[in-house]
Write a structure and sequence with these properties.
- Helix content is 54%, strand content 15%.
- With 65 residues, the protein is α+β, with helices and mostly antiparallel strands.
- The chain has one domain.
- A 3-stranded antiparallel β-sheet has the order 1-3-2.
- Strand 2 and strand 3 form a beta hairpin.
- The longest helix is centred in the C-terminal third of the chain and has 12 residues.
- The chain is globular.
- The protein starts with a helix and ends with a helix.
Length: 65
């Protein structure tokens, strides 16, 4: 039962690989969009580049209209 509870936990911070998997695009597409101001800007956390999950989810929802 405890394993089932952990499997439903969603990370709040996403690494580049997780973002590209969520969106189904290549990492270069993500970074090109960040530079163009068309995708949320990541943050640095303990030396890692990460995105807030909610920022990515809001971006996808905005695409849907």
């Amino acid at each position: 039962m405890a394993a089932a509870a952990y499997s439903s936990i969603q990370p709040l911070l996403l690494r580049n690989t997780q973002v590209t998997l969520m969106l189904g695009v290549h990492r270069n597409k993500v970074w090109n969009r960040v530079r163009a101001g068309k995708f949320p800007t990541p943050i640095k956390w303990e030396g890692m580049t990460v995105w807030h999950r909610k920022d990515v989810e809001n971006f996808v929802e905005a695409l849907a209209g």
